[in-house]
Design goal:
The complex is a heterodimer of chains A (about 170) and B (about 525). With about 170 residues, chain A is α+β, with helices and mostly antiparallel strands. Chain A has four helices and seven strands. In chain A, β1 (about 65-70) and β2 (about 75-80) form a beta hairpin. In chain B, about 65% of the residues lie in helices and about 10% in strands. Classes of the chains: A alpha+beta (about 170), B alpha+beta (about 525).
């Protein structure tokens, strides 16, 4: 009986000590996680341009969150992956089979921010017609991204065009 | 006799003994234990308050973060609107890449879009002011808000410039360059606002996660501390209670042994408190009682030996007195005159009375000395009753007392010493006849009751007061009627009681003054 009591007390004290210890975040691990996040968000840009170049709509749609929005002007918005897929296929030349574009991006113009499970992504798209080696159009995209079920996806996309500039 | 330890006793546990050895009164020990338990309870309460306080702080922080998040979210939406407006005008090839996109309902005029953009930008700057935000932003947010305000001011000025240049010359290259600069500012503006909103969102999520972790750790800590307090309180209670109960059990066992006549043991209590004092006193009492008991036993033995010897020494000359008086009274050596005969009768009566007294004293002495050996065997109770009745019948007839015997056949044969039981029956019958007035009756009945054989002798005599019922069975005790009659020795009922008890039976009287008496003795019935 006495052994049981002493054992119980020791176990409870051990439990209390374990409960008291609140693990502090490891700065190195935090930094590594941030680097990983940057890399994963950067992959969105890479896949985006690859998808528009090879006109692979499935690869493109794999970058979007289920309830994402795509805006191409005030009040001109597609919501949800179905509408966004339709937008790309019917309202953008990027997936038009008639265009022969390589979608390229000046790496130094890439901008990524991360805060927790949310971030922003900005890049330019230079569509180069490989038939005549000419930049047909230059566009920009401002995006909100979020980590959803462990994967970074686009939750909001604002499309625009721009002039080629340094 | 060795002390028997009770199965669940925790006496002689080292911890219990250690508490018992503490040189403090039981009251002080209890007070310390209650104080300790109270401190533990207070500690648990304080811990609970601390946990609640932390939780309250986190809720407060969460409220502040949500307020900031809402404001920054609005800022982000305003910036996004600027970006959306500007997206159409910044590059000249917007509708080249988005030919299917519906055109904004702004008359498709670039200047109209620029004007709308300028208006939207003008709304951003003021919303970063503290009075508009409704809270004081932390330093890191304040810096970003300053940047947003600065960029929105620049963008606003730039948009005014674009409008001024665009109106007269819509195809001016200057407009394109200005729009490029404006777009860069708008992108930065949006990203700064998004960073603010995302940062507070992340802080909210982090706080919620920390709150969840904190709840878990606080819950575990609280359970741990409360459980520890509970266990410590139980252990304290266990040790303290057994430091009290253990000695009490030992003392109780010792007192029970003393009550059973065993003075051989002692209480072994280590306590240095009231219970230790009590145990020491019990041990002293045990020793003193043992000594007194030994003395009493010796005195009783000496008394019995003395009585037995004296009775024997008295009976020897008395037999000579009775024998020779009898010879003279029967005129074996010549006639005696009337007066001589009367005196001889007195001598004989007194001699017989004295002999009876001596015989009774001798019997009692033998019983007390443990020298009476019962000659047990089956005998007929009915015959024993009849023989007893025969002995007293003559006197009953002379006194005009009727004797009736009702014997239960089921209670006929009993196991015992027939001579001693006859002695009991004779004592009861002779008392009944002696105290029953002329014309009265004596009823003798036997019955089998609950595994016993009952013999009752009832008379219609003067009865016995209730307060005398127990006393009657003591030596040399008589009722007032008995004393008045100047008959008997006061030993008959005492002897009867001893004989019945030697048989494993019991004897008692049921009587009230003026209503006669019934003496009953019960013997164990024969088995089978």
């Amino acid at each position: 009986m006495r052994k049981l009591i002493i054992g119980g007390v020791v176990a409870i004290v051990a439990l209390a000590l374990v409960a008291c210890g609140d693990s502090a975040p490891d700065p190195a691990a935090e930094q590594a996680r941030l680097q990983s996040d940057y890399w994963q968000i950067d992959q969105i840009e890479k896949d985006f341009h690859h998808a528009t170049t090879i006109k692979n709509i499935d690869l493109m749609m794999g970058l979007w969150a289920p309830n994402a929005t795509l805006t191409v002007g005030p009040g001109v918005t597609a919501t949800g992956t179905d509408e966004i897929r339709g937008f790309w296929l019917t309202k953008s030349l990027a997936f038009d089979p008639a265009t022969h574009w390589i979608s390229d991006h000046p790496a130094y113009k890439l901008e990524i921010t991360v805060a927790g499970d949310r971030g922003t992504l900005h890049f330019e798209c230079h569509y180069v017609d490989y038939d005549n080696s000419h930049v047909d159009v230059a566009t920009v995209a401002d995006m909100d991204v979020a980590r959803i079920e462990g994967r970074w996806l686009i939750t909001n996309f604002v499309a625009g065009s721009t002039e080629l500039r340094p | 006799m060795a002390e028997t330890r009770r199965p669940l006793s925790r006496a002689h546990d080292p911890l219990v003994d250690a508490v018992g050895r503490l040189p403090a009164r039981v009251h002080t020990k209890l007070l310390i234990a209650f104080l300790g338990t109270s401190i533990l309870l207070v500690a648990v309460g304080l811990l609970g308050l601390r946990v609640l306080g932390q939780s309250n702080d986190r809720v407060g922080a969460l409220g502040g973060l949500q307020e900031r998040n809402f404001a920054y979210g609005q800022l982000q939406r305003d910036a996004a609107y600027v970006r959306a407006l500007m997206a159409e005008n910044a590059g000249r090839s917007f509708y080249k890449v988005w030919p299917g996109a519906p055109r904004s309902n702004l008359g498709a005029k670039a200047v109209a879009i620029d004007t709308a953009t300028a208006n939207a930008v003008d709304r951003i700057g003021p919303t970063t002011a503290v009075d508009r935000l409704g809270f004081t932003p932390p330093a890191e947010d304040a810096h970003t808000l300053d940047l947003i305000r600065e960029k929105s001011d620049k963008l606003s000025a730039l948009m005014q410039e674009i409008i001024q240049v665009h109106k007269p010359d819509p195809l001016s290259r200057n407009v394109v360059g200005l729009r490029q600069r404006a777009e860069g500012l708008a992108i930065d503006l949006y990203q700064d606002a998004a960073v603010l909103a995302n940062r507070t969102t992340a802080q909210i999520e982090d706080l919620i996660a920390r709150n969840a972790r904190s709840y878990l750790s606080s819950r575990n800590l609280f359970i741990g501390v409360a459980s520890t307090a509970l266990v410590l309180a139980l252990v304290l209670g266990f040790i303290l209670s057994w430091s009290v109960i253990g000695p009490i059990q030992q003392i109780d066992a010792r007192l029970a042994a003393i009550a059973a006549g065993d003075f051989s043991g002692h209480v072994d209590v280590v306590n240095r408190d009231e219970l230790g004092d009590l145990a020491a006193n019990v041990n002293r009492m045990n020793d003193e009682l043992s000594r007194l008991y030994d003395e009493l036993e010796a005195a009783s033995r000496h008394k019995s030996e003395f009585l037995a010897n004296m009775s024997h020494e008295l009976r020897t000359p008395l037999n000579a007195i009775l024998g020779f008086s009898q010879v003279l009274r029967e005129e074996m050596f010549g006639p005696v005159n009337e007066k001589q005969a009367e005196y001889l009768d007195d001598i004989l009566a007194s001699g017989h009375h004295l002999l009876s007294l001596i015989n009774d004293v001798l019997d009692l002495s033998k019983i007390e000395a443990g020298q009476v050996q019962l000659a047990r065997g089956p005998f007929s109770l009915r015959e024993a009753l009849e023989q007893g009745v025969v002995v007293v019948r003559e006197r009953a007839n002379v006194d005009g007392v009727r004797i009736d015997v009702t014997a239960d056949p089921a209670a006929d044969v009993v196991e015992g010493d027939a001579r001693r039981i006859q002695q009991v029956i004779f004592n009861l019958l002779s008392n009944a006849v002696k105290f029953t007035p002329p014309g009265g009756a004596v009823d003798v009945t036997t019955a089998r009751v609950n595994g016993e054989v009952w013999v009752s002798v009832s008379d219609t005599g003067p009865g016995i007061a209730p307060e005398d019922h127990e006393r009657l069975f003591d030596e040399f005790q008589q009722t007032e009627a008995g004393i008045a009659q100047r008959e008997g020795t006061g030993l008959g009922l005492a002897l009867s009681k001893r004989f019945v008890e030697l048989h494993g039976g019991r004897i008692w009287v049921e009587s009230e003054l003026g209503r006669g008496s019934t003496f009953v003795f019960a013997l164990p019935a024969r088995s089978g």
